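Input/output pair, single chain:
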Amino acid sequence: MTDDSKPFVEQVHIQSFGCVRDATLELTRLHALIGPNDSGKSTVLAAIRTAGDLIQFGDNLPPGRQRDSRDIAGSQISMRLQSGLHTTELALIRTEDYWILNAAGPGVPKDQRHFPLQYP
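Output:
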């Protein structure tokens, strides 16, 4: 698999997660977040990590790994993933009790495009 065909996050949109109220970032394969202290760099990374954890593990986080406390009911994390010629859209929406994952794109079975992920 060449570097061009490896999947990467092309865009992330974050709403109501920690100090980030509404932000959209266009990303590249190699990207640096630069800014003054308390500008939200770590919160952006935490949102991306939270989305990855939810997609990979659902409510079964590995031992020693905890959910980030910056998410609240109403938090949303949307990502566009690019892999070769294929684009996958993911949207995670936090309710009071769980996250809802909406997914669309090649390789996402139609019966798995919308489902709740329990929140401990």
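The CA atoms of residues 86 and 106 lie 7 Å apart. The first strand starts at residue 8 and ends at 17.
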